[in-house]
Structures are given as structure tokens and as C-alpha cells.
Design a protein that fits this description.
- By secondary structure, the protein is of the alpha+beta class.
- The protein has one domain (4-159): Aminopeptidase.
- It has helices at 25-35, 42-49, 94-104, 120-128; strands at 4-6, 15-19, 54-61, 64-74, 77-85, 110-116, 132-137, 148-154.
- The protein has an 8-stranded mixed sheet, with helices on both faces.
- β4 and β5 (77-85) form a beta hairpin.
- The longest helix has 11 residues, at 25-35.
- It is globular and about 35 Å long.
- 25% of the residues are buried.
- Residues 1-12 have low confidence and may be disordered.
Length: 160
């Protein structure tokens, strides 16, 4: 099980990033419900994790799940599917640590994601990691009709 230890975070806590096992999915779903208006349920996560192209990692502090990231890797093309931080754990850099972990955990050619056009904190995070706005899916989110911004980044190191 991969582990990424971080010393000296803003709260002076040690964090670990580890693969989320199926028996801990309830923790992910709990955060999912707090963060998204159309959350995935446990069955959706189980279905995604049953294949070999989806990866779910959690950032734990003091043994508790604080944030998670779900991404898909298809032949070196990454798609960020979900990333969330528990409301009481925000503004501590956890989502950024998960993004850095994802990008550093494997060889990749490009990354793509969709984000709500009104989700300014997420957009800023993705731009910090070099993703660019490359398209719009108008009315993509069925719960409120919000547009999805398509953001992508090509990995120049994969060209060599």
C-alpha cells in the first residue's frame, strides 16, 4: 500500500496518503455527501474500483480521512474523477497534496477533468497545477444546469 508522509503541515500534523480499501468506502461516501450536490454512493465507488484503471487514495490525519482523490489512468492519460476535502479540514493544502501525489505517482501523458464553472477554489487549484481551460460543456450538471469547464494539461516530459 503506497504511503506518502508529510511532515510539518500547517496544523503540525503528520499526514499519510494511502490507497482506500473497499472496507473504508463509507468514510469516502460520508465526505462525498457533504461536498457534492450529486454525490456518488458506495456502489458507484465499488463499481469503479472493480476495474484496474481507477485509483482511490485518501489523505489521513490522526487516523481519520480528511480528503480523497479518485482518478482513472488509461494508457497514461489521467482523468481526475473526484477530489474532496472534509469541510472541517479545508484550507490546509490537502487537495493540493493529493493532486501532487496523483501527478507524481505514475508516468502520464496528459490529464483532463471537468469542474463546475462556479467552483472557483477548485479551478484555482487546478490552474496551480498547470491545467488550462480548454472547453465548456454547457448545462452539464443536471442538478442545477451549471456548465462544466474542461481543463487539461499535457506532460512535456512524456514527449522525451
Amino acid at each position: 500500500m503506497p504511503t506518502y508522509s508529510v511532515g510539518q503541515d500547517p496544523m503540525q500534523m503528520t499526514c499519510s496518503i494511502v490507497e482506500v480499501k473497499p472496507e473504508r468506502l463509507a468514510e469516502v461516501v460520508e465526505i462525498e455527501k457533504l461536498c457534492f450536490s450529486a454525490p456518488w454512493n458506495e456502489e458507484s465507488y465499488r463499481a469503479a474500483m472493480s476495474g484496474d484503471s481507477y485509483f482511490l487514495f485518501g489523505l489521513y490525519t490522526s487516523g481519520r480521512l480528511a480528503a480523497y482523490i479518485l482518478f482513472q489512468d488509461v494508457l497514461g492519460s489521467l482523468e481526475l474523477v473526484n477530489i474532496a476535502t472534509a469541510p472541517g479540514c479545508r484550507r490546509r493544502g490537502y487537495a493540493g497534496r493529493l493532486m501532487a501525489f496523483m501527478l507524481g505517482s505514475r508516468d502520464w501523458k496528459d490529464i483532463a477533468l471537468e469542474v463546475r464553472s462556479r467552483n472557483d477554489p477548485a479551478i484555482r487549484l487546478y490552474e496551480k497545477f498547470g491545467l488550462l481551460r480548454t472547453g465548456v460543456r454547457h448545462g452539464y450538471y443536471s442538478d442545477d444546469g451549471d456548465d462544466a469547464l474542461i481543463m487539461t494539461r499535457h506532460n512535456e516530459r512524456s514527449d522525451s
